[in-house]
Amino acid sequence: MSFAPRSAACPTSARARASLAARSALEVICTAAAWNTIASRAVDYHGPPLLVAASHFRGSIRKWARFGPLFLLQWSSSVGRKEEILDRVRQLAAPLAAQEGMELVDVEIGGGGGRQILRVYLDKQGGVSLDDCSSLSRAVSAALDVEDPLDGAYDLEVSSPGLDRPLRTPEHFEKFKGSKVRVKTFGPVPECENRKTFVGILKGFSDGKVIVDVDGKEFRVPHAQVSKAKVEPVFDQER
User: Fold this and answer.
1) What is the domain partition of the chain in residue ranges?
2) Is 179 helix (H, G, I), strand (E, B) or coil?
């Protein structure tokens, strides 16, 4: 097992070393991009970079556009599946972290090049050590091998959150009140000027909403619509 400065990488099993086919991801990004071109719909894709021959894409765009809503539905379903996996991993990892006196901050799925990376972020009073990461890596790895919630190959990384700490729960948003944050939503929020990204000062959490001051204007973002939120590091020259 090897450790990076802020993370502990731990391949979970022989299955985690297998190559991951990108066929479904290729279909989603190509067809979503085609529909975006025709209907001016924004598609936010965070998967591995994929290359498509321009001639093939131009020749197929009209046919794909006819079925745009179907493909967008498939893309939406894949997002739902990802959230389902993340929720299950959180359910497995949170009690294991608590047993070690740590808090599970969040779980993410990322990576590229045919490999998924499951990232588990931990925190505790006084900071998380490499031994903490190593211990929880083994515990979470064993639980994942039994439950097997992920599809295909993956590596497990356990680390402290770092300066750009993820924010997920109401408690997180209250704890980091006064910090500069970046909040993204699943789509435009009508009651917030149809914005999807909010960068500003976190004012807290109230009535199921994340309160962010953006350049002097306060936005109350429904928590259920937040796809990702994190603390924005502020360096001396920005103060």
Assistant:
1) 2-19+82-159, 23-78, 170-238
2) coil
Q: How many CB atoms lie within 10 A of CB 58?
A: 10
CATH code for residues 170-238? 2.30.30.100
Annotate 74-140 with DSSP letters as a single string.
Answer: HHHHHHHHHHHHHHHHHHHHHHHHHHTT-EEEEEEEE--TT-EEEEEEEE-TT---HHHHHHHHHHH
Whether 236 has a pLDDT exceeding 80, the answer reads no
**The pLDDT value given to residue 78:** 58
Q: Extract the tokens encoding 235.
A: 């360096």
Local structure of residue 163 (DSSP, 8 states): S
Per-residue pLDDT of 113-155, as tens digits, reads: 677 899 999 999 888 999 999 999 999 999 988 888 887 778 8
Instruction: Read off φ and ψ for residue 60, nearest 5 degrees.
Output: -105, -10
**Element containing residue 228 per DSSP (H, E):** strand 226-231
37 backbone dihedrals φ, ψ, rounded to 5°: -65, -40
Query: Domain 2-19+82-159 is of which CATH architecture?
Result: 2-Layer Sandwich (3.30)
In angstroms, the CA 10 to CA 160 distance is 15
What is the pTM (predicted TM-score) of this model?
0.59
How many other CB atoms sit within 10 Å of the CB of residue 70?
12
Give CA–CA dist 199/93, Å, rounded. Answer: 30
